[in-house]
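Minutes, structural biology subgroup

Action item carried over from last meeting: produce the structure token record for ATP synthase epsilon chain (Desulfotalea psychrophila). EB confirmed the sequence was re-checked against the source entry. Recorded below for completeness.
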Amino acid sequence: MAQQINLEVVTPSGSIINKDVDIVNAPGSGGDFGVLANHAPLLSTIKIGALTYEIGEERNTLMVSGGFCEVSNNKITFLVESAEAKQDIDTDRAMKAKIRAEKRIAKHGLPSDEAYSDTRAEAALHRALIRLRVAQGL
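Output recorded by EB:
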């Protein structure tokens, strides 16, 4: 059996995953990256995206919100705002959030004081799209 790395994903609610895995692929703010056992120490910010990990032939995916990642001593720890496993994603809710965000973005001529709302709508759309992608196993 190949050497593994310990993966831990922590949200404000607590640790949701703590297991040994073969490989982790993460949505880093500077680009996606992969981590295997014995990886060099690393700190990275994490963007909204799909976090995947493999154990043997089994591949698992989580939707994660922004946060941080540390790789050290054969352990990779994610401190993220939220994390949802494929089976926990409510696709109806995600689709409604997608439609709502698209409607907000489609509004033209927003006053400058509403620019922040537009940015929030874009972030909401991105989260909804990632949730749908993870739920569909893409």
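Discussion: The helical segments are 91-106, 115-135.
Next step: EB to file the record with the rest of the batch.
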